[in-house]
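Practice set, problem 2.
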Amino acid sequence: MNIPFEFGIVQKKTEETALFDSGATENFLDKDIWRQLQIGKIRLPKLLMVHNVDGTENCKGKIESYCWLKVYHQGHMI
């Protein structure tokens, strides 16, 4: 199920959709959203491989950086 939500930082916001209960072990942003919101990032000491649910390697490549975000949905931090 896809759920629309507002994603933002202090300076900017954007409308996005999220896959509800995807089973992912972490939260991820793609580079387009990162650039659009101009979020700071911290370079990882070692690149992380990303696999799709079927076990194949994700076509977007390895994760190079991370950031800390607070995620809110309907006024609650999740």
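Problem 2, part (b): a different protein.
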Amino acid sequence: MPLVRIETRRWMAGDTKLSVLDAVHASLVAAFKIPAHDRNQRIVEYEPADFEASAGKGEHFTIVTIDAFAGRSVEAKRALYQELVSRLAPLGIPPNDLLVVVHDVPLESWGTRGGKAACDIDLGFQIKV
């Protein structure tokens, strides 16, 4: 049940936003093996004056922050980064303008499914990939 926040300057048309959301989700399905129906994503856009980036970053600099159940391997995270780069580049986000941060959140720190800790329920999928 990753929670995804995609932050960028305002530049995307509606169809591009949908494609970006689809690309990020497909990357998570491929690399983290999450269920295909498990989508919790949002795009946050800023006016250019409200989104500062390091020198050398382009107009489409994008930060993808993913809060995920702890337990994914370094290999799965590397695969995720590569999936994201390969899927987002054709949509206008150059590889060097993409920053990805994965927060590993312990299962006991997720309250879900009626107020239960994620460590107390059967999630229905494997986390240790």
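Answer key, part (b): The chain has one domain: 3-120. The domain at 3-120 is CATH 3.30.429.10 (Macrophage Migration Inhibitory Factor).
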